[in-house]
Amino acid sequence: xxxxxxxxxxxxxxxxxxxxxxxxxxNGLSESxxxxxxxxxxxxxxxxxxxxxxxxxxxxxxxxALLKASRAELVQRIGNIALIYRGAKKPNxxxxxxxxxxxx
Length: 104
Known about the structure:
It is built from four helices and four strands.
């Protein structure tokens, strides 16, 4: 389900202060990286991923592959940082960036 403009604005505001918690390097989309991505999305729902690739087209292709593999939505991409969102099945109020932002 695509994100609404209001959701994108809210997620961008929340994501502004986040640090990248995953760094995609030159090893490709390994099973361990995809597993870690899935776990971080389930924990935090909204995360930043740094994509270290040579060209802009390569970065765009990697981000698209990440989104497709994780069934997540792209909120924003600036340079080599992608802010992505996927709602958790059971959000943890202590870990979810969305729930923590709503609380305070």
